Structure formats: structure tokens, C-alpha cells
User: Which sequence fits this backbone?
């Protein structure tokens, strides 16, 4: 047991998470994570996408049980098998996607499931309204009425309703997952006011955020997770942004990335001042033949949106796109495809693969023009195309007639990738090409990317894994809030430099200081 | 499951077994098996006259189910087709009785069918309104319109040449049965071997992926509905000409029988999966069951319940199959 003599952090932690381990098929999400939060403490959880923050809070909220380890509240072990167990232990979670009933009123939402009752099981509407008003008054919220329908509220007010719901259940531990992601600046200020009031009441707040400046503004301590492991817990007063970035990204670069040096050719894609509000703002970039350009940035920084604008899914509102030197106005994916652009989407489930179709049919879907003559599909040519793809991408399938949805994630990703290459593109845009697939399949996809670049393909790769970006890219671009904010050559791109650019000016300023 | 890299892509012996277990094969076995079983109980069931009547009287359902299958594979549904068949039959019959050339009377049903369905396709695809809502509205319009315009009167005194059912192909095959087989084969070939046919499966299986591959979902959906309208027109002609009169109503729940044929034929109600061979076999099976009830002295009213059991069993099997796939 840790003996802590700090006055701000009392010795008996309200919430104590001890040596949590959790694995999902093929992935080890958490390996022995521990942290504590005291009464009245705001404890931040920090980590890159995939570091294990979401898994950790889901375990604390009882969404799924840990494989090993325990959660203690007030020093007593609690069994969190279901979300209801967490609620009874005084733990409430406010997820990024607010879980409210838009057609019901503020009061009804707050007391959903535990409405005050009058006789015969009737809902005591008056008591409910009075309790709601008392809750509103206790947090000094004056612009929210108990009778308002939640669907008509702005996001900030909806979030307040969620917070009130947690308080109405006497939550003593409040988990907030990226609470400011969708808030305006004014609402962020108000959120912080509320968090400070909760703190004063002795509520422990677990605060998850990517934004370092918020952590410095509101948190007492910060725990950094990386690759599912606990890296460090620091008092905010004792650390700075540069150190936190270093802790978040500072992992060894695995030697998995065989980027072959190849001669770089003429520009294949040139984008100038591309606009598509709200998420693409005056973006300019170029990709040359044989070059792999990595596009780094946090989730929500607008990388996928930029890619989809180039590919014509959400056509540009302003700006210029040149393909192989020729200015083009791309209005649809079909047009982008005919110009030699291929896009492998991030979410292969909803965007890439037609699951009920066979491997053969999926391989030929983007290249039907090449195997169909006068509208009729040449089965032989189609089988050859698919067979070549299966061989080239080492897809593990029992046959070409296998239903694609039955294959493993890595093999599905290879099909989605191969489908696009069947068309002979000049530019390949890869959005998170290796997310959620196992290490072996990952290495194969990296090997293929190297080969494709060597054959003269221009590749724009979006990735949230910094080692992948650094390992594969000839050049690294960093996107933040819809703009391309930094560019690094392969030599200059380091975990620290790219990480700082991803996190924003605050981190950079700290580093410069 | 053991996975091999491309090994035996051509000749996997287990694939032959699996092909036997396909919905189409199961249905074919059921059609023949039921005929034998009922024939043993009551040999009159197997009389050429009865079998031919069963096919003649239900070919139009199979023809309409071909179009319905395409619609469901594309991820949509149509519940207006029963009412539309009634309207198209009346249009065609009215023209024929009033002296229009027979060919014009026939073509009118086909053209009107295409127009009505294409209109629904446009509303569904371009205004993005769920098919069930659009076709439910059309169902009411057509049903109400038909009974109001005709005043419930039957069309009689149709010219003899109007009756397609009297035509025999190769001197033996009644035209409705011929058309059912022809439409099924052509549609099956089209869906299997053409790029536009493949687009239906892509749109129904994953509209977003199809779009990224440059396949236009709205265009595909409108095309499918237009074809469905063409087949509905053909079905209406077969329906109109099997009796000597055209009633101003259609068999109750005709659209449900047609949807049942598609679904029991292996078309996934979630879209993306299914063949028209399956739906035609299922239409035949359902007709055969209805006849079998009569020949085994079971009340024919049971046919609705039997259809219900068939549709539930098929959909549950389909959903379980999909869930297993998702879990893999």
C-alpha cells in the first residue's frame, strides 16, 4: 500500500484500479494497468489512439470484465460484471456519444430508470421536477429548464444533462471520455466550472482527453498509457507538455517497416488550397511517383475527410487538384477512379468489403470494366484477376468462392487493398491500412506498400500509429484541426517532432522553452 | 477452419457438397420429394392435368417473384406489386375490350408497369425514402384507385386472342410456364454474368463499398425497380389471361405470396444475397403445397400458415448464417 503524505491527495484513494489485464482475440489491450484517484481529484488519462484508455474506462464502468486485476472503491473490492454494478458502486461514465433520449425532457432523462415514485408505482412528476431544479441550482445552471426536450438542446447543455444524471444517482466517481471534443470554447469553460464544483464536493473525476492544455488547466494528476501499459503517473504541477508527449509516443520503432529507397519521380498528386468545410481547410500537399507520404494527426484532425475530398466522396468546395500535372475537378469516386486514384478506406467493414460476396467478386468489384466486355463479365478473366490478387497479397482463403466476410480481418484488408490495385491506379490513398490486424498481416501490407512504391505508385498513407508513419514514409505531413500544420523529411521526422506537431502549439511552445 | 493460400481454389471436393446444400438444391429436392410423397398418398396428384394446372395458375407469381428478388437483393422491398398487377391487368383488359390492337393492350401493361415502378425507384433512391414507406403508399393509391375507377365491375367479353395462356410453345408447353422459365433463366444469367447484374449484389451487400467502387446506388436501384415493373407487367398479363374475366381485385395478400417466394428462395431480406432460380423454385413449391393440401384432404386455408412457417424458418436460418459469418 502506498503511503502518500501529500496534503492535496489524501491517503485513502476513492478509486483504485489495480493490475488490470484485458485481451481481445488477437490483441492485448491492457497489460497490468494501475492507477488511483482520490476524493476531489481530477485524474487525467492520456495516451495515443489505441493506448488502452477506452478499454480501461469500459472495465471501470462494468461494460466488460477484466481478465485479471481488480477495481477497489473506498478500499473495498467491487465486482463490476455489468454497468449496473458500477452504477451501484457510485461510478458514472459520460461517453463521447451522449446516451440521451432526444424526445424526452431534461427531467425525464435525468431520472430515467430511477424516477421518484408516488403510490401504485406512478411516477411522481412533481418530485421529479423539484429534484431536477435542485440539481440545476446546485451546479448554478440557469439556462436549462426541467421541461425542455433534450433533442432541442445544444451539445454543451446535453452534456450537462448527462452530468446531472450521474449526480442524481449519487455518483462519486465520474468518468468523462473526451468531454470537450464537440464543445465550443465557451462550453469548455462552463464544463471546467462544473468539474471544479464537483471536485469541491469530493467527487473523483477521471478525465480523458487528447488536449494537453486542458489537462494542465483542470487535472491534478495524469496517468499516461502506451500500448496498453501504464507508463507513468505524474502530478501535473511536476511535468510539462514536452515530457507528456515524450511519454505518450516514446516507444521503440519496431524494425517492421521495410521502406525501400526508390527513385522519386514526377508529382502524381498536387493539391493546392483545398477547401471542404468544416474539416478540410486550405490544405496543400503533393505526392510523387514512388513516394510514400505519411499523413499524421489525431483522430478528428481531418485526415480522412481530406482523403475523401480528394477521392470525390465529398467533393471540394474550393482549391485545386492536379493528377499527373493535369488540373481536374473530381466530383465522384467513379471519376476519381477513372483518373487513376484508388482509396482504401479506414473502415473496411462498412466502406471497403462487400461481406456477403465471394473473394472473387470482391477482387473484381472496382475493376469490372477490365473484366467485363459489353457488360458481360468474362469469368475466366475475373478468376485470373482474383487469383493473381490472392497470390500477390498472400490472402489466406480456402478458395476464390469463399465468402469474403468469413475471412480474418487481415485477409479482408488485403482483399480491399488488392481490389483497388486491380485497376492499375497511379495514386493510392491508404486510410489506416493496418488498424486492427495482426502483426504478420501488418508486415505483409508494409512489404507490399514498399513494392508498390518501387513500381512507381504514389502513396498517401493516413495512420494514427506514429511508428508506422515514421517507418514507412519518405515524407511526413501533420494535420491538425483541418489544416496541414507541419512537414518533415524522413530524416527530421522523429516521435517527438511529429508528436509535438500533432498535439498542437502548446506542446511545441513548451518544447521550445 | 484450415486456411490454405489459394490451395485447391479450383477443385475443393467439399465445395461440391456445399453446392448441394444450397437453397436452390434444397428447394428442387423439396419440390420433387413433396410430389412423390403426396403422389404415394393420392396418385391423382401426379396426374399431368393437375401438375400443369398448378404451374399454369401460379406462373405469374414466379415471374413477379423474379423482379421482387432483384429488389430485395438490392436492399429494398416492394409491397405494392400485388396491387400493381391488378391495375395493369385492368388496363390491359380495358384496352383489349375497347378494340385496341391486342399487342397494344399487352404492351400497355408492360410500359405502365415499368413507369410506376421506376417512379417508386426514383423516390426511394434519389429522395432516400425507405422502400417500405414508398411502396406502402403506392399500394394504397393503386388499390383505392382501382376499385374507384372500375367501380368493382369485372371485365368480360375479352377477345379470344387476348389469352396468352392459350398459346402453346412447341405445341406442348403452355405459354405462362414457358415465360416463367424464360424470364428466370434470362434474369439469372443477367444477374450472374453482367456488370450491371453484379452491381445489384454490391449495392445490396454494402452500398458504401459499392459507391467507393464507382457503382451508383441510385441508378442501380432505379434500374432494378424498372425491371421489376416490367416483370410485374408480364405477371399481370399472365394473371389477366388465365380466366375469361378480369376481376377488379387481386388475390388477397398477393404481394406477400410473392415476397415469400423470394425469401424462401434464399434471397436475404437484408440484401446482397440470393438468386432468381431459388425464388422461382420456391414459387413452384408454395403452389405445389397449396395443391397438396387439397389432395391430402387438409383444409386449403392452411396454406397461409404453411407460408408463414416457411418464411420464418428461412429468415431465421439466414440470420443465423450471417451471425456465424460476422463472428468468424
Assistant:
Amino acid at each position: 500500500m502506498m503511503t502518500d503524505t501529500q496534503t492535496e491527495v489524501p491517503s485513502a484513494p476513492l478509486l483504485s484500479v489495480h493490475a488490470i489485464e484485458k485481451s481481445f482475440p488477437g490483441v492485448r489491450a491492457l497489460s497490468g494497468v494501475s492507477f488511483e484517484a482520490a476524493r476531489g481529484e481530477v485524474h487525467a488519462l492520456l495516451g495515443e489512439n489505441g493506448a488502452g484508455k477506452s478499454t480501461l474506462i469500459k472495465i471501470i464502468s462494468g461494460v466488460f470484465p477484466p481478465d485479471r486485476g481488480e477495481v477497489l472503491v473506498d478500499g473495498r473490492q467491487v465486482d463490476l460484471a455489468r454497468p449496473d454494478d458500477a452504477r451501484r458502486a457510485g461510478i458514472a461514465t459520460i461517453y463521447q456519444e451522449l446516451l440521451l433520449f432526444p424526445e424526452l425532457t431534461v427531467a425525464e432523462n435525468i431520472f430515467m430508470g430511477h424516477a421518484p415514485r408516488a403510490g401504485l408505482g406512478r411516477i411522481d412528476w412533481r418530485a421529479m421536477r423539484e429534484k431536477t431544479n435542485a440539481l440545476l441550482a446546485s451546479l448554478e445552471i440557469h439556462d436549462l429548464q426541467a421541461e425542455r426536450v433534450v433533442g432541442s438542446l445544444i451539445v454543451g447543455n446535453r452534456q450537462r444533462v448527462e452530468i446531472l444524471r450521474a449526480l442524481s444517482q449519487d455518483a462519486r466517481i465520474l468518468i468523462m471520455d473526451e468531454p470537450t471534443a464537440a464543445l465550443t470554447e465557451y462550453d469548455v469553460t462552463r464544463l471546467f466550472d462544473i468539474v471544479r464544483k464537483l471536485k469541491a464536493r469530493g467527487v473523483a473525476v477521471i478525465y480523458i482527453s487528447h488536449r494537453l492544455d486542458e489537462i494542465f488547466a483542470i487535472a491534478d494528476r495524469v496517468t499516461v498509457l502506451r500500448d496498453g501499459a501504464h507508463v507513468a503517473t505524474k502530478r501535473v504541477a511536476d511535468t510539462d507538455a514536452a515530457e507528456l508527449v515524450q511519454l505518450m509516443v516514446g516507444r521503440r520503432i519496431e524494425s517492421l517497416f521495410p521502406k525501400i529507397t526508390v527513385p522519386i519521380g514526377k508529382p502524381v498528386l498536387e493539391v493546392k488550397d483545398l477547401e471542404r468545410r468544416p474539416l478540410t481547410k486550405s490544405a496543400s500537399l503533393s505526392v510523387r511517383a514512388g513516394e510514400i507520404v505519411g499523413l499524421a494527426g489525431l483522430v478528428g484532425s481531418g485526415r480522412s475527410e481530406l482523403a475523401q475530398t480528394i477521392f470525390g466522396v465529398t467533393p471540394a468546395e474550393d482549391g485545386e487538384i492536379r493528377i499527373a500535372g493535369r488540373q481536374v475537378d473530381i466530383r465522384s469516386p467513379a471519376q476519381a477512379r477513372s483518373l487513376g486514384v484508388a482509396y482504401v478506406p479506414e473502415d473496411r467493414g462498412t466502406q471497403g468489403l462487400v461481406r456477403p460476396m465471394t473473394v472473387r467478386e470482391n477482387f473484381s468489384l472496382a475493376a469490372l470494366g477490365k473484366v467485363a466486355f459489353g457488360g458481360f463479365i468474362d469469368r475466366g478473366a475475373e478468376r485470373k484477376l482474383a487469383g493473381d490478387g490472392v497470390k500477390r497479397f498472400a490472402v489466406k482463403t480456402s478458395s476464390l468462392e469463399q465468402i469474403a466476410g468469413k475471412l480474418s480481418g487481415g485477409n479482408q484488408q488485403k482483399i480491399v487493398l488488392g481490389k483497388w490495385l486491380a485497376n492499375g491506379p497511379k495514386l493510392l490513398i491508404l486510410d489506416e491500412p493496418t488498424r486492427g490486424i495482426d502483426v504478420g498481416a501488418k508486415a505483409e501490407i508494409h512489404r507490399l506498400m514498399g513494392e508498390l512504391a518501387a513500381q512507381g505508385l504514389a502513396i498517401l498513407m493516413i495512420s494514427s500509429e506514429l511508428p508506422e508513419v515514421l517507418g514507412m514514409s519518405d515524407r511526413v505531413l501533420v494535420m491538425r484541426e483541418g489544416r496541414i500544420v507541419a512537414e518533415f523529411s524522413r530524416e527530421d521526422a522523429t516521435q517527438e517532432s511529429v508528436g509535438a506537431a500533432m498535439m498542437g502549439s502548446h506542446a511545441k511552445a513548451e518544447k521550445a522553452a | 477452419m484450415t486456411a490454405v493460400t489459394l490451395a485447391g481454389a479450383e477443385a475443393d471436393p467439399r465445395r461440391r457438397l456445399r453446392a448441394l446444400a444450397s437453397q436452390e438444391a434444397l428447394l428442387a429436392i423439396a419440390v420433387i420429394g413433396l410430389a412423390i410423397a403426396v403422389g404415394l398418398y393420392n396418385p391423382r396428384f401426379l396426374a399431368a392435368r393437375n401438375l400443369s394446372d398448378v404451374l399454369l395458375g401460379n406462373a405469374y407469381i414466379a415471374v413477379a417473384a423474379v423482379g421482387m428478388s432483384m429488389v430485395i437483393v438490392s436492399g429494398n422491398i416492394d409491397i405494392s406489386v400485388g396491387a400493381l398487377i391488378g391495375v395493369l391487368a385492368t388496363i390491359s383488359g380495358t384496352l383489349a375490350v375497347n378494340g385496341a390492337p391486342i399487342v397494344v393492350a399487352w404492351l400497355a401493361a408492360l410500359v405502365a408497369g415499368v413507369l410506376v415502378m421506376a417512379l417508386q425507384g426514383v423516390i426511394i433512391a434519389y429522395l432516400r425514402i425507405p422502400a417500405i414507406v414508398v411502396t406502402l403508399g403506392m399500394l394504397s393509391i393503386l388499390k383505392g384507385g382501382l376499385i374507384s375507377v372500375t367501380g368493382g365491375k369485372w371485365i368480360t367479353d375479352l377477345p379470344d386472342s387476348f389469352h396468352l395462356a392459350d398459346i402453346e410453345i412447341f405445341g406442348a408447353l403452355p405459354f405462362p410456364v414457358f415465360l416463367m422459365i424464360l424470364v428466370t433463366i434470362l434474369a439469372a444469367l443477367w444477374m450472374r454474368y453482367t456488370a450491371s447484374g453484379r452491381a445489384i449484389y454490391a449495392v445490396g451487400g454494402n452500398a458504401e463499398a459499392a459507391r467507393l467502387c464507382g457503382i451508383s446506388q441510385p441508378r442501380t436501384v432505379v434500374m432494378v425497380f424498372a425491371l421489376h415493373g416490367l416483370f410485374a407487367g408480364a405477371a399481370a398479363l399472365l394473371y389477366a389471361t388465365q380466366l375469361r374475366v378480369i376481376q377488379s381485385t387481386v388475390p388477397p395478400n398477393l404481394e406477400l405470396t410473392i415476397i415469400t417466394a423470394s425469401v424462401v428462395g434464399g434471397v436475404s431480406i437484408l440484401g446482397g444475397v440470393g438468386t432468381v432460380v431459388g425464388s422461382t423454385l420456391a414459387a413452384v413449391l408454395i403452389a405445389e403445397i397449396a395443391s397438396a393440401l387439397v389432395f391430402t384432404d387438409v383444409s386449403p386455408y392452411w396454406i397461409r400458415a404453411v407460408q408463414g412457417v416457411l418464411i420464418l424458418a428461412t429468415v431465421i436460418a439466414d440470420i443465423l448464417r450471417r451471425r456465424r459469418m460476422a463472428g468468424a
